[in-house]
Amino acid sequence: AADSFGVQLAFLSARRECDLRAASTEYPGLTRAQVFFHSYAYSYRGVESEDNLRDFLETDRHSPIDYCVNGPLANLEGFSEAFGNKLDTFFDGPERNPERADALEREWTALQQRFPSPTVTVKDLVDHIDHAVKTIGIDHVGIGTDFDGGGGITDCNDVTEFPRVTEELLRRGYSESDIRRIWGGNVMRVMEAAQKATNPRMNGTVNLHANAGSQGN
User: What would the pLDDT profile of 179-197 be if each residue is shown by its tens digit?
Assistant: First the structure.
């Protein structure tokens, strides 16, 4: 779900900024929309052996690479329009083999029972933040998350529980300024610098720092 909504929102934003039907100047023979989707798939590039894939399934709660790419794109109208293929339902289409799907689900459940995820708490998360701050400095540390929850932290399962992270940061002596940087200020600073570098005309016209880091404060 996160991959599907993420690539869809990114595509809609890109389409609002430029004509994605136009030919790409950087990649002859492709439209801008096709380059967009190629770039998304390329970010997941990789070749996995059977052993690596099994290890991944045993230790990681995320979907294998094929599902992260094929699933979202096969059901996205923008992708269908860009490449001229019909919309598909990667998970539930007519080509789906119910017996194979059921077997995979049973295998997945068995692996999760055999290798249960370790218990991770907000204190563990902030331990990592402490380490990053000591290693690279407060100006280079930020928190990223899926707002729909399910990150694996037992006492911070979704956005409504973010304040617990702030509470732990305060308990450890982080200042309000530090917490604002961690909760978004650093990311906004870098994004603003990148925006100015790629589009000088926007210098001074957008204040990405406004309300940066307000989450959890």
Answer: 999 999 999 999 888 888 8
Where are the extended beta strands (E) located within the chain? Answer: none
Q: Which one-letter DSSP state was computed for residue 173? A: T
What is the token pair recorded at 128?
A: 């990592």
Residue 9 token pair: 């929102």
User: Cβ(148)–Cβ(158) under 8 Å?
Assistant: yes
Integer CA distances (angstroms), 188 to 12, 88, 97, 114, 207, in order: 21, 37, 45, 41, 9
Residue type, 119: T
Contacts of 17 (CB under 8 A, 6+ apart): none
Rg (C-alpha) for the chain, rounded Å, is 21
The pTM (predicted TM-score) of the whole model is 0.50
| Gap between the Cα atoms of 15 and 6, Å rounded | 14
Q: What is the dihedral of CA 192, 34, 66, 62, to 10 degrees?
A: 20
| Rounded distance between C-alpha atoms, residue 210 and residue 215, angstroms | 12
- Cβ atoms of 35 and 27 within 8 Å: the answer is yes
| CA dist., res. 1 & res. 147, Å (int) | 11
